[in-house]
């Protein structure tokens, strides 16, 4: 039975390791333009993972959304993003979105060793950049991964009962190729 990859092994990380990974990426990107992130602006949210068809397992799997801001005048946001983009591309991230307008910069990327999604964008008013990192689904260390069953097929294709049912009806206008 093909389960479309539902039961492929998940990467293993503790919640603390996932948070360190996200924080490290944000700090590294900010450092590309000599910025310091403001630890007082950290927002993090751990959630249970759900599959693409809303499958749910009770083995403790989770993902993390982490965000933090750094002060930077809006007219420098584009220059900062250029330096960060270079770093991400060197780290095997694929840039999925990029905009560099005055006081309205945005960059989205996905990849790297841990397959993270990262977004860096102007925060309004445009005096800060916000770094948002979302992790893939991780399984906590020491936990056996629960196997999620594949859904049952919704319908079975059937052949026509009679050969006559398989032929199209005769056209009202035999000389017209469009019927």
The sequence of SSEs as H and E is: HEEHEEEEH
Average pLDDT taken over every residue: 85
User: Termini distance?
Assistant: 44 Å
- The proportion of strand residues reads 25-35%
Number of strands: 6
Tally of helical runs: 3
Counting helices, strands and paired strands, the structural category is alpha+beta
Shape category? elongated
Main-sheet strand order equals 1-2-6-5-4-3
Helix content: 10-25%
Oligomer: single chain
Q: What's the alpha carbon Rg, rounded to whole Å? A: 25 Å
Low-confidence stretches: none
Largest sheet: 6 strands, antiparallel
Notes on the protein architecture:
With 179 residues, the chain is of the alpha+beta class. The protein is built from 3 helices and 6 strands, in the order αββαββββα. The longest helix is centred in the N-terminal third of the chain and has 17 residues, at 15-31.
Concise synopsis of the structure shown:
By secondary structure, the chain is of the alpha+beta class.
Brief descriptors of the model:
179 residues, alpha+beta, 6-stranded antiparallel β-sheet, 6 strands
List the helices and strands and how they pair.
Blueprint: H1 15-31, E1 38-48, E2 62-71, H2 77-90, E3 93-101, E4 104-111, E5 116-123, E6 128-134, H3 163-166
Antiparallel strand pairs: 1-2, 2-6, 3-4, 4-5, 5-6
């Amino acid at each position: 039975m093909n389960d479309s990859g539902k039961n492929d092994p998940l990467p293993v990380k503790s919640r603390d390791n996932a948070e360190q990974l996200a924080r490290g990426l944000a700090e590294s990107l900010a450092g590309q333009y000599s910025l310091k992130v403001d630890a007082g602006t950290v927002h993090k949210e751990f959630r249970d993972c759900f599959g693409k068809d809303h499958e749910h397992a009770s083995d403790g799997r989770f993902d993390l959304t982490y965000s933090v801001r750094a002060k930077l005048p809006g007219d420098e946001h584009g220059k900062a993003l250029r330096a960060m983009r270079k770093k991400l591309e060197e780290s095997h991230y694929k840039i999925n979105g990029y905009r560099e307008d005055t006081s309205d910069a945005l960059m989205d990327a996905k990849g790297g060793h841990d397959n993270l999604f990262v977004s860096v964008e102007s925060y309004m008013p445009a005096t800060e950049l916000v770094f948002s990192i979302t992790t893939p689904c991780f399984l906590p260390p020491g936990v056996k991964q629960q196997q999620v069953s594949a859904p049952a097929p919704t319908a079975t294709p059937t052949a026509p009962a009679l050969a006559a049912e398989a032929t199209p009806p005769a056209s009202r206008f035999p000389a017209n190729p469009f019927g």
